[in-house]
Design goal:
By secondary structure, the chain is an all-beta fold. It contains one helix and 33 strands. It has one helix at 20-25; strands spanning 9-11, 16-19, 30-33, 42-46, 56-59, 64-70, 73-74, 83-85, 90-96, 98-101, 106-107, 113-117, 121-127, 130-135, 144-147, 152-158, 161-167, 173-175, 179-194, 199-204, 207-222, 227-232, 235-241, 243-248, 254-259, 262-269, 273-276, 283-287, 290-297, 303-304, 310-313, 316-321, 324-326. The strands form two sheets. It has a 21-stranded mixed sheet that branches. Strands 2-4-6-9-12-15-18-20-22-25-28-31 form a twelve-stranded parallel sheet. It starts with 8 loop residues before the first strand and ends in a 9-residue tail after the last strand.
Length: 335
Amino acid sequence: LNARMYKKEYETDYNDTVSMVQLAANKYTSIKVKKARGINKKIIIKGSVGFQPNILMSVEDGFRGTIILENVSLAGERGIPCIDIGKKCNVNLQITGENELRTGGIRVPDSSVLTVVGDGNLTINLNSGKYFGIGNSLDEYHGELNFYQDGGIIINANGMKGIGIGSGLGGVINIKRGHYEFDMKGQEGACIGSVNGDSELFIEYCDMDIYSGISNGTIIGSVNGDADIKLENISAKLQGAKECYGIGCRAGRTNIYIGYAAVKSVVQGKAAVAFGNSVMSAKLYCSNADIGTNAVTEFNSDIGALEKNIQLENGRAEFILNGQEVKRQILAARL
């Protein structure tokens, strides 16, 4: 008998504290966070560092309230979200301590809102053919994703196609704080953004260290759609391999603004570009930024944009294409 055929679900109360150790001892396989009339107060899920039960979590349609994860580890069948948020939910997810999702991510359907807060860390490990970290699957839109946490979001992914934060068709992503550390591998995908939809991203007040070993993909932006990207007050180190668009998209409309930020994009691959797109139609505007590229590529530029559409004001810049420095003028503008 397949052990996964045995299922036992714990349903939370209106205002509940749940012990993962007790649930595991009582052979529960999942937690269902129930909707209450009005707004739920707080559902606290307490784990223990190093304790790794095979328990999944789902959130009932229409739930509005706060879920606190405190040193929680969740896992189940590979490819199934560890946290599956229902329709028309508004979830405040507070991260405390060290938390991990070992076999899947957090699904947020397009009618729901997820806001991440707290000073703890959340590590998501993904290893399946198609995967997503926080958002939704490759053939769906995701709901509104808001990141206001002070802690880290760490995503390690291996598979054919996938996404770190976002979904296949896109949706609203607001990254306002936090630390982001990704290591992603696959055939096609995006670290932050979308695969086939348009990507409109505003990322600020955070730091990022992202490695993409995705053969055909983008680190920040959209693979096959348009990309409108604004980065402010961030520190980002991006590394990509193969056919990689560091910040941008493959061939869609691409607008990139970087202000008061330190951003370095290192790419290596046959058709890799550090910023922009493969049809040289991007627009890049940098103001008071410390910006750098290092591209080893057969492409004829480190940036997929015509020089007239690359505007640099104040700040510092270093651009390297196949070991040679590319000189670009930085205009002195009034602050």
